[in-house]
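Write out this protein's structure.
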Amino acid sequence: MPKPKKRFGQHFLRDNSVLARIVALLAPQAGDHLVEIGPGQGALTRYLLPHCRRLDAIEIDYDLVEELQAQFAAAQNLHIHRADALNFDFTQLAEDTKALRIVGNLPYNISTPLLFHLFEQKQAIRDMLFMLQKEVVERLAAPPGSRQYGRLSVMAQYHCRIVKRFTVAPASFYPPPKVVSALVELTPHPSPPVEVGDYACFQAVVAAAFGQRRKTLRNALKSLLAEETIRACGIDPSARAENLPLSAFAALSRTLAAHPVHSPAG
């Protein structure tokens, strides 16, 4: 069995009780099309295969791909892709919209960019169930005003309904990570929870607002929106981004889209 590679952030989940809990939460049905990101040594793959119509596994490590191919040679419903999930086109796997159910123990060093990559392809995704660093799960689900609330919280909550599930101790993995892990469920909204006017403007407002957390909106957004314009949205220009709900960012975005001071790319 190939050894874990540090450059890929590999920590293989080996706790059968945790694996069983993941499968119970996912509750795969016979007609489901599952996608597993980072199958590693196939521990979760083995649990999933009997319960779905098709399982696509995305694995970057060539040695592990060879091991998986040998281990599951008889599995007709498994399709293994040697690929980097950060660049993978998940929509190509979906026969219909909202078809894919994505699951995985994600490498923690790429979890945030990978989530953003998946948000861009949410039209093909029914739901996602991921093992992540507990700190990242807390940021995803954080409410306004909390210490963990930030750009990731706002963007993730715009795209998905987020439910924290349970934590997992380092001892459940090989090698044990130096952090506690947690399982999180992300379900893309059927339609956006707020109207942002223009998505590029929304991205620009959120990124600028959280660019320097200690700055007030007046200063953080000055390249995008004038102070009077922020106030006209019903938002205090002296407030900080960490205290704004999603609806406030949407209001700022709509205003920027309608009356741009500068281009979001500028």
